[in-house]
Amino acid sequence: MRTLIKNGTVVNATGRLAADVLVDGETIAAVAAPGVLTEADKTIDAQGRYVIPGGIDAHTHMEMPFGGTFSNDTFGSGTTAAAWGGTTTIIDFAVQPKGSSLLSTMDKWHEKADGHCAIDYGFHMIISDVTDESLKEMQLCIDAGVNSFKMFMAYPGVFYATDGEILRAMHRARETGSMVMMHAENGIAIDQLVAQSLAAGRTEPVHHSLTRPPELEGEATSRAIQLAKVTGAPLYIVHLSSRHALAAVAEARNTGQNVFAETCPQYLYLSIEDMAKPDFEGAKYVASPPLRPKDHQADLWRGLRTNDLSVVSTDHCPFCFKDQKEMGRDDFSKIPNGIPGVEHRMDLLHQGVVAGEISLERWVEISSTTPARMFGLHGRKGVIAPGADADIVVYDPAAKQTLSAATHHMNVDYSAYEGMEITGKVDTVLSRGAVVIADGAFHGGEGHGKFLKRDLSQYLI
């Protein structure tokens, strides 16, 4: 099957040009001046639209166990929603329970995902139990295409790792060329603040943010950076939310250290004011790290322009307001942590283009090209170029839409962006050459997505 996408503006991280794109089977066969390519089985007219590489969401949590429940999107529903929003690849997290092996964990996540995903997918590995055996297994995971390992400085008793355990894992990452990803919040201090708040009767959702202040994110980020410096390991800070943590990352990068960071749309658009909404509505916005005061947002946008923030992922972790978020109605510490977002990342970042916060090329870079390079997919994903997978989005920059739970496709009963009016909308989505979104309908299916065995990071300094 040969598909010709004509009359559009091709946008890569390196620039834009008027060009036609020929897809042959699952890959891009040619990118040529308009009118040069003529023979195809199917033609898509992209007049007035951008033709961009499919988005890569490098941080999702489908079917993830947390606090006695599970995130509500399956790999089927979550990847279908991602496709609706122009994301054609996700990288999810396999969660190692304490006392289990990394390989058995990876097998369990393959059972959840294989044959169910509507788009291509890969895995990171969460290491919650640092032992001699798990450190040895890191190489076996790398051989299987899972070569990034997440650790937590938060959640004592669940995921928390001591500085010594982090140091051991970082040494192993240095030896193997793999990447350590860090949830950087001072969990020991946070637990103390939570206990004090609850003892004083402060139980509302807003106190989730007030007991996880930005200073403790900044401190943990700085500590993680120093541990990485001592070991020589590369470090990727996940879901960075505050200027305090950003300052630590920027300082390390200015010295040439292999330190990278992502942020998420919720930190660019939402704030602690949302968590303070009455009648428990604030529970919808509980995630970790928490939403910050609005004045942090300008710093994060600036970080995206300077590349101190290299990637925007979603940390998609959907829990329904009814029955799930309500578990913490009388105790904010029992509210499942997570905000749904995999469907709207590309649109929300395009709003940054509309507002003049980032360029069109930077939009593509932070949502697709850099995630591909950062996580060993460059050449296959993240670029409109001959030989790359035909993961292509035809995007209408002039279309208007209003975000709402009534129209989204994520398996969750609320939208964190309810009523937000935005400019720009996905028109057509191809996943490895197959049209999965067109004419306002889903044409794909569960099982189309393939597991991606990733190479080591191609983004290290």
How would you portray this structure in words?
The chain has 461 residues and is α/β, with parallel strands linked by helices. Helices cover 31% and strands 24% of the residues. The chain has helices at 75-84, 102-113, 132-143, 163-176, 187-199, 206-210, 214-231, 243-254, 265-269, 272-275, 296-306, 345-354, 360-374, and strands spanning 2-12, 15-24, 27-32, 42-45, 50-53, 55-60, 65-66, 69-70, 87-95, 120-126, 148-152, 179-183, 235-237, 259-263, 311-312, 392-402, 421-431, 434-438, 441-442. The longest helix is centred in the middle third of the chain and has 18 residues, at 214-231. It is globular and about 70 Å long. The relative contact order is 0.18. The model has no long low-confidence stretch (mean pLDDT 97).
Helix and strand arrangement:
Layout (H helix, E strand, L loop, with lengths): L1 E11 L2 E10 L2 E6 L9 E4 L4 E4 L1 E6 L4 E2 L2 E2 L4 H10 L2 E9 L6 H12 L6 E7 L5 H12 L4 E5 L10 H14 L2 E5 L3 H13 L6 H5 L3 H18 L3 E3 L5 H12 L4 E5 L1 H5 L2 H4 L20 H11 L4 E2 L32 H10 L5 H15 L17 E11 L18 E11 L2 E5 L2 E2 L19
Parallel strand pairs: 1-4, 1-5, 6-9, 9-10, 10-11, 11-12, 12-13, 13-14, 14-15
Antiparallel strand pairs: 1-2, 2-3, 5-16, 7-8, 16-17, 17-18, 18-19
Number of helices: 13
Shape: globular
Unreliable stretches = none
What is the total tally of β strands?
A: 19
Mean pLDDT: 97
Helix content: 25-40%
- SS-based class: alpha/beta
Distance between the termini: 40 Å
What summary fits the major beta sheet?
9 strands, mixed
Kindly estimate the percentage of residues that lie in beta strands according to DSSP.
15-25%
Backbone CA Rg: 21 Å
